[in-house]
């Protein structure tokens, strides 16, 4: 049950991200934003270690 709930949550988050990127500005800007977010996440992960 816990795994199913997590999977559903992940799918909802993914669909929201996809819809916002499609609805939002140009694809290039959306890609730049995702790249920035990934780099920030990587920095946070390295700091956490």
Q: Notable features of this structure?
A:
49 residues, mainly alpha, 90% helix
What does this structure look like?
With 49 residues, this protein is mainly alpha-helical. It is 90% helix and 0% strand. The radius of gyration is 14 Å and the shape is flat.
Sum this structure up briefly.
By secondary structure, the protein is mainly alpha-helical. Helix content is 90%, strand content 0%.
Summarize the SSE layout with pairings:
Elements: H1 2-23, H2 27-48
What is the averaged pLDDT score?
70
Q: How many strand elements?
A: 0
Shape: flat
Q: Largest beta sheet, briefly? A: none
Please, how many helices?
A: 2
Distance between the termini: 31 Å
SSE string, helices as H and strands as E: HH
Q: Proportion of β residues?
A: under 5%
Helix content: over 70%
* Helical/strand content category: mainly alpha
Spans where pLDDT lies below 50 across 5 or more residues: none
| Gyration radius, rounded | 14 Å
Tally the structural domains.
1
